[in-house]
Amino acid sequence: MATRPLKDRRGFADFKESIALAFDVLRRNTLRSFLTVLGIVIGVTTIIVIGAVINGLNSNVLGNIQQLGSSTVIISKFSWATLGRLSPKVLQRKDLNPAWVDGLTQLPHVVAAAPVEQIENYAVGAGASEVRRGDLRAKNVILTGEGPAVAQISDFGLERGRFFNQTDEDHRSPVTVLGHITADTLFPNGEDPIGQEVLLEGHVFTVIGVLEIQKQALGTGENPEDNTALVPFSVIRKLHPEFKNVVFMAKADTTQNLPAVLDEVEEYMRRVRKLSSNDDDDFAILTTDTFLDLWKQISGGIFIVMMAVGSVALLVGGIGVMNIMLVSVTERTREIGVRKAIGARRSNILTQFLLEAVTLAVVGGATGVVLGSTFVLLLRLAIPSFPASVSFLLIALGVSVAGMIGIFFGVYPAWKAARLNPVEALRYE
Question: DSSP label at 291?
Fold first, then answer.
């Protein structure tokens, strides 16, 4: 029993000695070692930067989706959460009738429903309207008409003022709620917009509210969703009767009852659309889970592509590690023979060269982590709204991948060193 701790201490001492020898080799060949692991450095840096950006985007996208509310249901002519082009049959679907909203509000587990119509240039992701106040103009404004119940359905907030009420809707009141950028453009000197009049598409409107800054899922800079003007739904139908792309928003009484609401909404929409039992749905029902699934597909695809790019660099780095270790075995053949002659076992030689390969790779991985983290930090300093964050899991992944590269590509050189014949090794010049 007394010999086991002694054996353990001897093994730990051998391990420490191997690590020390590995770092000594790296110090003696600094430039060669750096060039060897350059591929690993580039690969790990790529993983850190892309992983950090995806982490930040995940946070932003989740925040945007949460604004909809976990119990919100959106009914549209076709799905917004579809990758690829829509088929001609889907594009030819009939528009939704705003009068159907009344039926949605009567469903057992629906507490509110409202029609929404948005006039936007989807090709450029900006609005097509203009709002004026004297000589001041807010251009590319997204014009949106919403029923008063939207304030109860969605989780967006008001910075000041109020939202539309049923009286505004019934009387087609010329009132508007402005986005943050639109309000700042028209009232640049800290003036209170509430109660002020603006010209919206040539018509006089009274400002009754200003929205809070909206979270931006992708990209940086100004958010187009903050350059918006909201009006009652009845007003936008009067201003633009030619636009008929209406969607419905509904809210379930509880998140637990959401599956029941989806069934109720589907049955109701099939009934008002006069679909037979053999017909497919000619409408789409979307929830927060729909957008989450879409984002997972997009972010997963981005991550796979970037990991493939990083893997090429890691592969090149791994081949470099194997090459330099084979050169090292050749250069130190006599040293290996001397060590074997004085009692070193094959396992000692194998461990030493394998640890050298792993140390080389891990140093490259750690350098990549530092460079990647620094790059992300500089981006955040230059662009405060840049969505990126480096997590501990990401750092651990970068170093672990580098370590595995070292093990995989270091086994053969270490095995070759351990198999050298000591007599022939001592003769080597």
Answer: H
Q: Tokens for 189?
A: 């000197």
CA 14 – CA 20 distance, rounded (Å): 10
User: Which among 333, 397, 422, 398 has a CA at the least distance from the CA of 45?
Assistant: 398
Neighbours of 88 (CB within 10 A): 7
One digit per residue, the tens of pLDDT, for the chain of length 429 reads 444 555 555 556 666 666 676 666 667 777 777 777 788 888 888 888 888 888 777 777 776 666 666 788 888 887 766 666 767 777 778 888 888 988 898 888 888 889 998 886 654 556 678 899 988 998 888 899 998 888 888 767 788 899 988 999 999 999 999 998 999 999 988 788 999 999 998 889 999 999 988 766 555 556 777 889 999 999 998 888 888 788 898 888 888 888 888 898 989 998 888 888 888 888 888 887 777 777 777 777 877 887 787 788 888 888 888 888 888 777 777 777 777 777 777 777 787 788 888 888 888 889 889 998 888 888 878 776 666 778 788 888 888 888 888 888 888 888 888 777 666 666 655
- Taking CA atoms, 395 is separated from 39, 52, 55, in Å, by 17, 10, 13
pTM of full prediction above 0.85: no
Beta bridge partners of 118: 144
Expressed in angstroms, the distance from the first to the final Cα of the chain is 46
- For residue 326, the SS3 value is helix
Domain map (residue ranges) of the chain: 12-63+298-427, 94-282
Q: Are 109 and 253 in contact (CB under 8 A)?
A: yes
Strands 228-232 and 126-127: unpaired
Beta carbons of 355 and 18 less than 8 angstroms apart: yes
Looking at residue 21, its amino acid is: L
Tokens representing 400 are 């672990």
Residue of 188, 203, 213, 208 whose CA lies nearest to 239: 203
Number of Cβ within 10 Å of residue 342's Cβ equals 8
Token readout for 127 is 């609005």
